């Protein structure tokens, strides 16, 4: 029976080609995800290995106690004079301080910041030490205060070479002019992945780029024969409180693990999810293909039963076919995934999210997991057709195979309802329940719901297609009537094909509605939360932006053309024993530049020492009321500060969580104050247009900052959402492509299945053109069903998501009718395109041979 299964597979190789393509596409996406993430992880692993090569011990300052994902990299600095103390430790050959700060932005010839939303712009110091990871490839090291060396990646990408004069901005301040004295390469990696790195003399780096004019860390080189672990113990004894020592190997390992975890969360997991979506859509194609093929082989399988084959053997033969198909197609898909990984990297680079790259990292696990998943999905999808094959009785060998047209059982309806309700229940828990597994529940809930809907779709095939196709006999005559009847008579087949389209269209529609809703909500939220007419913001909202110098606010505050200058800052903290952010604002901003809607208390109470405003959602979650004490440990303080709740406010687009005054914020001991955004109004007697123009002129001396009106700020928010939606849509196109392949495959197999029927129709007078029209309209009806269901489900899912985001200030549902109609039209158009080859094949059947076929 295994031989029979394999021979059956080879006998229908042309019919299975499109199914194999669907598996290849889905598996290639998954394989490319592993290749991209493994390559990036490998590059960063090499980076940290190179950075610590020859370094026995690394000394760092205290770590912040709470906050963002990168907080472990944002340790406090170490004193400059600590280098001499460490050099006196027995076993130390040399020690040098290293500066590495993400606030040195290089400017192009037009005075604009270079780069996009990729890795940050870094300011560091050049050190003449054998353990220093950079080596010159051109020019000389910096020796004067205005000298700079740039990394080789930046040099080649932006044509910056020795002898060039270049502007650099530190911490969002004014331009500083430097002369490029050399170009340096980091370690042995093809691409450093460290962003745009500018290397200065240690004096300059401490003056402009260092955190509180301290070293980021101190690297210690051991004398020959001294063990790194022993030296770490000796060095630790002379360190001040809070400073820590680790071996170079420990530092590299820890840093690599942290970065790799971040890469997995923000790159690997999303791409892997899209790959699973593609495979999920492809599973419908597999089920449909195998079901049709089994129907066409009814007599063959019945003869096997008559010759003594058991049901178990028949089922095994079908599963063996699926296993072989899945294995071969998945292996091909994993190879294709290597090429797709290169395209994905280029796509991310093209949209501004440049990632560090190097030689492709191809791990055996990549191929094993990809091939295993693809094969498992194919085999799982074959179970239902295989079970159907076991029900073929030996007597079926005496009659001709006919297309499947079984009625929809009550058991199927009940199963579909149960599965659908379970999926919606998971979505409900994820959207409205208090759970830490929101993303997992959303994904699994949507998957289960789609399965339930796919089970139920056959129930509505007859009424929907029957109703929609009712005008076809009048419009297209006999071909139109036949197309309608063909689509209706095999409801399960039509439903399976339409379900694949339904999922693809639903996901794309969800993204479209979510984007439109977030835009509308964002516009409303900005109007509700920001009273200021003007804003000062960083030009680069990505790339590890660290804010900008408070000197900007100081200069604006003394300019009579502007009023109500408000600084907003964000800092990491541990709030009620959980890592979070805390917001610092000027108490005078309330009512002038910021609208704070309170449910109880007075928002201006934050002007009092150690007073905090909390949003209504947080207050309800923690049980806080007016007068409650909130335990806050600021990022670089060892002690816990009790803040008194002065007011509870409604969360909005600008403010959320705990809000304190700038005075309390600065008392929190943050090592460097940087404003995240400035809000301001025109001064007395100054109109808005003049104030906007004056602000733009004033900010010319701050090249990394931009002036915006409230409307411009809103428009930028909408543009960023469009870019994000564009990325998601491009990734989801893969699932739509697979769904359209399903339409082609179903129609081709349907044509083969109805060969004799088509021959008889031709003999009765149906022309070739009429045959083509019939097949095309059948495709249109299937595409219409998938598009209509997908749009309805997409809008419903998006509405649920928007409802769930209401507490975050995004609760306005906006449905882009024109865009959704465009999706439907495009889907139906491609349905017509998908029918081209099946229709052509059907019209070219030889009438005599077709009538004689069985």
The number of distinct β-strands equals: 22
Count of discrete alpha- or pi-helical segments spanning 4 or more residues: 24
Mean pLDDT: 81
Oligomer description: single chain
Q: What profile does the largest beta sheet have?
A: 8 strands, mixed
How many whole angstroms does the radius of gyration measure? 33 Å
Q: Pairing-aware structural class of the strands and helices?
A: alpha+beta
The shape, in one word, is globular
Q: Span from first to last CA? A: 23 Å
Approximately how much helix is present in the residues? 40-55%
| Low-confidence spans | 67-72
The fraction of residues in strands falls at 15-25%
Give the tags:
854 residues; alpha+beta; 6-stranded mixed barrel; 24 helices; 54% helix; 15% strand
Word description of this protein:
The protein is α+β, with helices and mostly antiparallel strands and 854 residues long. A hairpin with a 4-residue loop joins strand 8 and strand 9. Helix 7 (248-296) runs parallel beside helix 10 (364-390) and helix 12 (438-468) packs across helix 14. It is globular. The two termini are 23 Å apart. The relative contact order is 0.12.
Task: Give a brief description.
The chain has 854 residues and is of the alpha+beta class. It has 24 helices and 22 strands.
Secondary-structure map:
Blueprint lengths: L1 H10 L5 H35 L5 E4 L21 H6 L4 E7 L1 E2 L2 E3 L14 E5 L8 E6 L7 E5 H7 L6 E6 L4 E12 L9 E5 L1 H8 L7 E6 L5 H9 L7 E4 H49 L1 H9 L4 H40 L13 H27 L19 H23 L5 H31 L3 H18 L1 H39 L4 E5 L12 H7 L4 E14 L2 E8 L12 E4 L9 E5 H7 L6 E6 L6 E9 L8 E4 H5 L10 E6 L5 H11 L6 E5 H44 L1 H9 L4 H37 L12 H18 L1 H8 L3 H6 L2
């Amino acid at each position: 029976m295994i031989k029979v299964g394999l021979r059956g597979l080879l006998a229908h190789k042309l019919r299975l080609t499109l199914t194999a393509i669907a598996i290849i596409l889905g598996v290639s996406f998954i394989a490319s995800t592993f290749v991209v993430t493994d390559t990036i992880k490998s590059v960063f692993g090499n980076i940290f290995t190179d950075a610590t090569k020859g370094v026995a011990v690394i000394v760092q300052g205290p770590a912040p106690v709470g906050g963002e994902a990168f907080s472990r990299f944002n340790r406090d600095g170490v004193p400059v004079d600590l280098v001499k103390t460490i050099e006196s430790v027995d076993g130390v050959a040399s020690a040098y301080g290293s500066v590495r700060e993400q606030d040195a932005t290089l400017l192009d010839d037009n005075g604009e910041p270079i780069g996009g939303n990729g890795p940050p712009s870094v300011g560091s110091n050049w050190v003449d030490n054998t353990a220093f990871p950079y080596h010159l490839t051109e020019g000389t090291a910096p020796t004067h205060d205005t000298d700079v060396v740039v990394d080789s990646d930046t040099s080649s990408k932006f044509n910056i070479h020795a002898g060039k004069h270049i502007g650099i901005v530190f911490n969002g301040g004014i331009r500083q002019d430097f002369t490029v004295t050399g170009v340096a390469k980091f370690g042995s990696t093809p691409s450093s992945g460290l962003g745009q790195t500018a290397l200065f003399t240690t004096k300059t780096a401490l003056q402009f780029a260092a955190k509180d004019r301290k070293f980021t860390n101190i690297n210690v080189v051991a004398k020959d024969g001294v063990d790194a672990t022993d030296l770490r113990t000796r060095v630790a004894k002379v360190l001040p409180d809070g400073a820590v020592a680790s071996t170079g190997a420990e530092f590299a390992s820890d840093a690599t693990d942290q970065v790799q975890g971040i890469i997995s969360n923000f790159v690997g997991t999303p791409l892997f999810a899209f790959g699973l979506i593609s495979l999920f859509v492809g599973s419908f194609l597999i089920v449909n293909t195998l079901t049709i093929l089994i129907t066409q082989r009814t007599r063959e399988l019945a003869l096997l039963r008559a010759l003594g084959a058991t049901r178990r053997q028949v089922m095994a033969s079908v599963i063996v076919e699926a296993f072989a198909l899945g294995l071969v197609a998945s292996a091909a898909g994993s190879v294709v995934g290597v090429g797709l990984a290169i395209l994905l990297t280029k796509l991310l680079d093209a949209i501004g999210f440049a990632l560090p790259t190097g030689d492709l990292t191809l791990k055996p696990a990549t191929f094993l997991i990809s091939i295993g998943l693809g094969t498992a999905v194919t085999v799982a999808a074959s179970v239902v057709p295989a079970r159907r094959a076991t029900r073929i009785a030996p007597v079926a060998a005496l009659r001709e195979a006919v297309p499947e047209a079984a009625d929809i059982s009550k058991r199927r309806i009940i199963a579909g309802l149960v599965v659908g309700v379970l999926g919606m229940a998971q979505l409900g828990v994820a959207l409205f329940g208090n759970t830490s597994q929101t993303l997992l529940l959303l994904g699994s809930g949507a998957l289960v719901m789609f399965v339930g809907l796919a089970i139920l779709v056959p129930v509505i095939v007859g009424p929907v297609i029957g109703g929609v196709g009712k005008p076809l006999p009048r419009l297209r005559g006999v071909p139109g009537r036949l197309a309608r009847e063909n689509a209706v008579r095999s409801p399960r087949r039509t439903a399976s094909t339409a379900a694949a389209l339904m999922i693809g269209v639903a996901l794309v529609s969800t993204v479209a509605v979510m984007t439109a809703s977030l835009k509308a909500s964002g516009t409303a939220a900005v109007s509700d939360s920001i009273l200021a007419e003007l804003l000062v913001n960083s030009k680069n909202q990505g790339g590890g932006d660290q804010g900008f110098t408070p000197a900007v606010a100081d200069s604006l505050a003394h300019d009579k053309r502007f009023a109500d200058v408000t600084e907003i800052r964000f800092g990491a903290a541990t709030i009620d024993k959980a890592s979070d952010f805390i917001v610092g604002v000027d108490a005078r901003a309330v009512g002038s530049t910021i609208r704070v809607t309170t449910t109880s208390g007075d928002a201006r109470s934050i002007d009092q020492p150690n007073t905090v405003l909390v949003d209504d959602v947080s207050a309800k979650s923690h049980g806080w009321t007016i007068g409650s004490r909130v335990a806050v440990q600021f990022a670089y303080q060892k002690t816990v500060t009790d803040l008194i709740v002065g007011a509870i406010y409604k969360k909005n687009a600008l403010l959320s969580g705990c809000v304190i005054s700038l005075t309390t914020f600065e008392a929190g001991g943050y090592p460097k104050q940087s404003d995240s955004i400035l809000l301001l109004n025109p001064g007395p007697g100054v109109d808005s247009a003049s104030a906007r123009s004056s602000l733009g002129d004033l900010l010319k001396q701050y090249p990394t900052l931009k002036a915006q009106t409230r409307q411009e700020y809103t428009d930028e928010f909408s543009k960023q959402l469009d870019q994000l939606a564009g990325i998601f849509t491009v990734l989801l196109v893969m699932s739509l492509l697979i769904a359209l392949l399903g339409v082609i495959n179903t129609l081709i197999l349907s044509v083969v299945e109805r060969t004799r029927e088509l021959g008889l129709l031709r003999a009765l007078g149906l022309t070739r053109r009429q045959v083509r029209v019939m097949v095309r309209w059948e495709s249109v009806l299937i595409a219409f069903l998938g598009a209509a269901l997908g749009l309805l489900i997409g809008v419903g899912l998006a509405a649920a998501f928007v409802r769930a985001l209401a507490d975050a200030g995004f609760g306005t549902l906006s449905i882009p009718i024109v865009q959704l109609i465009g999706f439907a039209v495009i889907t139906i158009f491609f349905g017509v395109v998908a029918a081209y080859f099946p229709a052509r094949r059907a019209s070219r059947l030889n009438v005599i041979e077709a009538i004689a076929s069985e």
